[in-house]
């Protein structure tokens, strides 16, 4: 029986779903893979539960989930305490072959991730932020385990769920790159919320109407501008571009959100009112595209050394053009995949699909030295 | 610099393309991954070229490609000789961490693959046959590197290109399974030739007309029944079903080819004439499907413990239904990917795309213990 110790940053959301899936799949992983996944520490933003010895068993993990779901913080859990710092937790809880799993959405984990890598541990990221700050941090994480000063390494790190949640996007990109195939163009939609909005526009609804509806249904972030602005999609585009070896930063990504920066100062209710000022413009753009046999999508484009995120006119009968609803989709046009691109499509969000992708990453790493 | 020695079974076709890509990407793999891929032996069906010491460098590999492309056999190459047996070649040429790459289409490689695994070497298969004969052989290959008697292992073997060529089909399936996601249904088209035929039917052409055209254009095997019979697709369906842990064999796969077994006895020209007897039936099936908003595809279905391959009526607005032309497509409907399936789509054939997939497998294995 092989064991792998897990240190989890970020409980709540994806972290919770991951713990639940680890508990649920324990017997499966033991019986089928000869693999025992042992959770040894879990942290939220100011607290932690750390196994004194051994692991946090299903009873403790269950009590953590119940505590978090009833609104509690880890520092007030029966076995919990203040977090101290994440580096210290990796230092204390880490064991041979430990994997640090980052399900937060913050850059506060970066020092602990780098410390873990220095120790020879493994890392799995659902968190896009460490891969979209300094290029040095991106390289340190993605070439984890490299023994020399090489750009690439298919070794001790995984970050599949940073783009398209559980969809096999990063593994596909890494495989194309590893074969020496030359990727000429990446185009994709990486936001379910923006997919919903663009599908609505396509159906002839007004932007303000769709945004209000999505907001009321809880499909958007509490402040819908966090979706509509496109920054999250831009982070994903940057991760893909960096995956091609391009030395870009967030400031190099051209972002055209669905609303003008002038609306950033408004309250949420005022913003929801103000969106109607944009209705006519989007209606016209959709109609103009339709007149040319095209459709409007909120796409990320990685092409010719440049990353661009925003409303994009695409052929109606391309994979992106045929997509409707909230699914994510990526088209990769390469030396070997042309004129038809390689396409991956499906649910690109949701805590369970994301947690399942993280769990796949963890199991894969169990078989990497 | 890390080195990985490659023993290649099968030159010609995919094997040739692989050697060419290895030569072309040598500097890239060294510079970016710190990886030196060293071809130490290549074999065809009755000859071999084996490096005395070191490796077969680009000059030798180039001369092998030229020799093969001019119709020569390896036994008559300047450095070539009779093959002896493949086990012996693995024995002589194998080194620590060697990878045996099977680009043949025969079961003659099985003893050498098993011998290589016993030695602790790695294996990459583009060859479907070893994975579709005995279940024991399937398990031995796919759980290469397991230290106990476990069913699954994400270790020292890869077989991505056995289904959908370079498309990320096996890695996607293995990742879903590893997370404990439950795959309820796999549906896909895995033959460019059959995709071409079904698209033609959809456009109102006659079966006999399309088959004749595809044959004349060289889109089919020399005997088009090798495509139209569906056995190759059935092998792919079986590999997917076994990937789910199902204990099935080829005899358990229900195959409905595009022509009746009675036509197996005909010569190729007589067969091409006889196909017109089937025209009316297929025309009717396509029309009947269309009347219900559906389309006819040549699909593989893996569902409810059963594998079925043959003409299949699918919803016109499903991913399979929207596909046209020669691209392959797989839909995976699972606990987390429902009602919309996870979809992978793109070119699923061609020696270059296949060789690139094999090369990705090789590079991945360089980073696995």
List keywords for this structure.
homodimer, 369 residues, alpha/beta, Rossmann fold, Dihydrodipicolinate Reductase, domain 2, 2 domains, seven-stranded mixed β-sheet, six-stranded mixed β-sheet
Summarize the SSE layout with pairings.
The structure is a homodimer of 369-residue chains.
Chain A: E1 2-9, H1 14-33, E2 35-43, E3 47-50, H2 58-69, E4 80-82, H3 86-93, E5 99-102, H4 110-118, E6 122-125, H5 129-132, H6 135-142, E7 157-158, H7 170-178, E8 183-189, H8 192-202, H9 207-216, H10 225-228, H11 231-243, E9 254-255, H12 268-274, H13 279-291, E10 294-303, E11 306-315, H14 319-322, E12 328-334, E13 342-346, H15 351-366
Parallel strand pairs in A: 1-2, 1-5, 5-6, 6-7, 9-11
Antiparallel strand pairs in A: 2-3, 3-4, 8-10, 8-12, 10-11, 12-13
Description:
- The structure is a homodimer of 369-residue chains.
- With 369 residues, chain A is of the alpha/beta class.
- Chain A folds into two domains: 2-166 and 351-366, Rossmann fold (3-Layer(aba) Sandwich); 183-346, Dihydrodipicolinate Reductase, domain 2.
- Chain A is built from 15 helices and 13 strands.
- Chain A has helices at 14-33, 58-69, 86-93, 110-118, 129-132, 135-142, 170-178, 192-202, 207-216, 225-228, 231-243, 268-274, 279-291, 319-322, 351-366; strands spanning 2-9, 35-43, 47-50, 80-82, 99-102, 122-125, 157-158, 183-189, 254-255, 294-303, 306-315, 328-334, 342-346.
- In chain A, strands 4-3-2-1-5-6-7 form a seven-stranded mixed beta sheet, sandwiched between helices. Chain A has a six-stranded mixed beta sheet with strand order 9-11-10-8-12-13.
- In chain A, helix 1 (14-33) packs antiparallel against helix 2 and helix 3 runs parallel beside helix 4.
- The longest helix of chain A is centred in the N-terminal third of the chain and has 20 residues, at 14-33.
- Chain A is globular.
- The mean pLDDT of chain A is 95.
- At the A-B interface, helix 1, helix 7, strand 13 and helix 15 of A face helix 1, helix 7, strand 13 and helix 15 of B.
- Strand 13 of chain A pairs antiparallel with strand 13 (342-346) of chain B.
């Amino acid at each position: 029986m092989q064991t792998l110790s897990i240190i989890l940053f970020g409980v709540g959301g994806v972290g919770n779903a991951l713990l639940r899936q680890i508990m649920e799949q324990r017997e499966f992983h033991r019986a089928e893979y000869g693999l025992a996944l042992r959770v040894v520490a879990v942290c939220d933003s100011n607290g932690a539960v750390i196994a004194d010895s051994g692991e946090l068993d299903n009873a403790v993990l269950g009590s953590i989930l119940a505590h978090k779901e009833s609104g509690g913080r880890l520092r007030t859990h029966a076995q919990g305490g203040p977090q101290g710092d994440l580096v210290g937790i990796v230092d204390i809880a880490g064991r041979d072959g430990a994997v640090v799993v980052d399900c937060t959405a913050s850059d506060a984990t970066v020092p602990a991730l780098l410390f873990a890598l220095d120790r020879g541990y493994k890392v799995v990221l659902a968190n896009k932020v460490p891969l979209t700050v300094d290029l040095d941090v991106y390289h340190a994480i993605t070439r984890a385990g490299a023994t020399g000063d090489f750009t690439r390494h298919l070794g001790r790190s995984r970050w599949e769920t940073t783009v398209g949640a559980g969809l096999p996007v990063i593994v596909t990109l890494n495989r194309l790159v590893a074969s020496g195939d030359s990727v000429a163009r990446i185009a994709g939609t990486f936001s379910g919320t923006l997919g919903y909005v663009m599908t609505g526009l396509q159906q002839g609804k007004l932007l303000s109407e769709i945004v209000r509806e999505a907001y009321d249904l809880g499909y958007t972030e509490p402040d819908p501008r966090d979706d509509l602005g496109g920054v999250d999609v831009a982070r994903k585009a940057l991760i893909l571009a960096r995956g091609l070896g391009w030395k870009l930063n967030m400031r190099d990504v051209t972002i055209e959100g669905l609303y003008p920066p002038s609306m950033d100062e408004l309250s949420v209710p005022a913003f929801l009112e103000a969106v109607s000022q944009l209705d006519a413009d989007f209606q016209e753009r959709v109609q103009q595209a339709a007149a040319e046999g095209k459709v409007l999508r909120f796409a990320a484009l990685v092409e010719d050394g440049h990353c661009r995120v925003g409303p994009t006119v695409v052929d109606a009968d391309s994979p992106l053009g045929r997509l409707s609803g909230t699914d994510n989709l990526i088209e990769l046009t390469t030396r070997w995949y042309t004129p038809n691109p390689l396409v991956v499509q499906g649910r690109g969000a949701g805590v369970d699909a994301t947690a399942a992708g993280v769990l796949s990453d963890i199991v894969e790493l169990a078989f990497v030295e």
